[in-house]
User: Fold this.
Amino acid sequence: MNTQKFNKNIFKIIFCTLIIFFIALPARTATVAPASGKVNLTGSLNFPGSNGSYTLGRDSQPGDVVASAATSAVSFTNVSCNLTQKTTITSGTETSSGSNIYQTGVVGIGVQFWNIDKNGNATLIPSGASGYTSTITNPGSSSTSISTKAQLVVTGPITSTGSMSGLPVIRMSFSGSCLTSNPSNFDFTVTSSASVTALSCNIVNQSIQVNLPKVNKNTFKSIGTTAGDTSFSIDLNCPSEGSNIYVAFTDVNNPSSQSDLLSLSPSSTATGIKLKISLNDGFLSPVTFGPASSEYAIINSYAVYMAPSITGNVSLPLLVQYEATSTTPSAGTVSAQAYFTISYE
Assistant:
């Protein structure tokens, strides 16, 4: 009886000893490798121009791309983590709020920026602090297509000639825990040694008054009869060649008119009469009126001279005449007005 009780107590003591042994084991510690990743990016955003300048038609269309420039493509060295790329325009003035196009110091020319991703896709970089952001997954040591592209674009009529100034600064930033420089920032100032030259002609007389002779109302025997032929011209001085020239005419008293007859002003007292303007080119081709616009080759516009032969003084010969619109026109005064718009291509 006494022997059995002694064995049971020994078992209990051994069990408690084993528990104490496992609790006393020391804890292990981890080591962290130092950051070794690097982002490589060089190059510049410079618009050198062709022969030091960009020569543009004064009425080049908004959105037309004049020139492009790009940074080198980004490469990575020992980047073992995911990176966040952020690209922002840090200085510069937009041509208008929210346009994402920045002033260049030349009226009618702006600059916009694009991010080129690893697949070569272009995304317009928006203005503001948010800019463009993306995630680059564990690039390791690799070359990519990631870069920034700048474009000079037409924003409106080019009304001045000169050098570009006050150009924006753009920042490409990469952040990640494995980078030796976190974040890695790259700033690029847009530069250009080129000037912008607007191709245009000077209008010698911007306001032309044409005096028609007095004509007896009995001259007009039927509708369509003409009389009082009077020649005049639109005279231009074109200091440089290389631009196609167009002219369009608009009826001041009826701007939406696409007729070949010019409406009389309200002050006119004659009735049954309108005026017809024709190209005095030997064929007397009637001018058809249309809308006033700075776009080249607009509706009912006429090619005056075509590049590159035009330089110096040129003239568009025209002829105006009365035309009967009634079989019984009445005597009185006749007055009318037309705008002419010169555009270039």
Summary: The first strand starts at residue 38 and ends at 40. The chain has two domains: 38-199, 202-344.
